[in-house]
Amino acid sequence: MNFSPPTDEEIHTAFVQGEAVVVALFHEVATQMRALAQQLAKQGAILQELQACLAKTSRNRSKPPSSDGYGKVKRTESLRKSGGKSPGGQPGHAGHTLMASEHPDHIATHAVLSCAHCQASLVGIESVGYEERQVFDIPAIRVTVTAHRAEITVCPECGHQNKGTFPDAVTQAVQYGPAVQTWASYFTNHHHIPVERTTEIFVDLVQHRVSEATVLQASEALCRCIAPATDAVKAMLRNAEVLHVDESGLRVEGKLHWLHVASTESLTSYEVHAKRGQEAMNEAGILGAFSGTVVHDHWKPYFTYGECEHALCNAHHLRELCFIDKQYHQSWAKDMVELLLEIKAAVAAMPAPALCLPSPDLEAFVKRYAAVVQAGFEVNSESAAAREVKKRGRPKQPPPVNLLIRLRDFQDEVLRFMYDFRVPFDNNQGERDIRMVKVKQKVSGGFRTLEGAKRFGRIRGYISTARKNAKNIFEALRDAFDGHPFIPSPAIH
Fold first, then answer.
1. Is-contact 316 58, C-beta < 8 A?
2. 0.85 exceeded by the pTM?
3. Which domains does the chain have, with CATH numbers?
4. What is the per-residue pLDDT across 459-487, written as a single tens digit (0 to 9) for each?
């Protein structure tokens, strides 16, 4: 077998072909590596989003505590800081020690019948003094029945039959009085006790069972009685300087409805509606005519009301910033928390006549605020640019970018509290006012009818307003049944 060595031309051709194959393989491997890197980056972003969703709790996001679940680990600490106070009453606290009464209602004398030393009888011997101990207690309560009799007489002159006039409140042959109605509405509307258990309370306390229909009718009657107060409170809220608004889900007829609240430090109004947005707000009849400053949590329909100024709740921002700091490890979020709290402290330190921070302080805080926001965008520039762009609408952004956009585009609304001291740092007033109605849902479940839910909202608004004005709730309900519902004075609002 003859073997002839390859020529130089054949060697060169083979080398060129081999080089082309290697280059092609290299490009193919590089392409696969780039695709793999993109896939890993995409999976990493999805994993981070899932981890962020799992890490969301009521402590770092605007979620109800019930959504945390029984076994969910609390991954962040509370935003509340220790005040350094010891347990119990603080210096200057007014005590409530039970003091003896100078004019007791009843006196029970315990006589000495015999001498403890010689057993001689002491019956009839005049005492030389007393040692007194007082017992405060509640007497037994019973339902009393008053028979109203309208006298009927015949005129001896003309023979006409005349009948006496019943009191205006006595309209039926047999009926319950205002005290029973006050009790029933007090338990169900103020203390959130279910209707059936309210009937049990009557049996246990006064040995008289009222029907569930009676309890429901008491709330219906109360809602009619407080109508003037409800309208007056809405009118005062429309004229308020600062208004707190919020909304939360409520189960009505087995479906999700929405509870809307509008309130101040001394006034409260609730509205239950099937919608969450502007339609419900218009029906509530407050925001449309409001021209002051409304504090809310950035729910977009609130911004459709352009006649008023807007202020955003910074408690929401602090929770979101803490979440971003711990979940995404972005230092700008911690810087923004410190800045907002510093501005809040500066506002609190200003003397009473001041209405806003001095101009140099305002300019310095605004400059620092803008710098922190810019630092946040720089940290998130690569991740924001790498987001997949949808065919329609805005591209989906991660939580840090969404918050940064809000802080940038709504800077004046975020910092409104330092420009106008009447505006608070947060919307805690609105959240507190909405909390007790949520308690009703937890205790008694959802509402069977929409009208029942609306009625409960009106009554709770009346109760909340009365409590804010230091009124006794039971007396306020009784006054309403007597035709004199509590209406706050417009002069103090």
1. no
2. no
3. 235-312+428-469 (3.30.420.10), 314-419 (no CATH)
4. 999 999 999 999 999 999 999 999 999 99
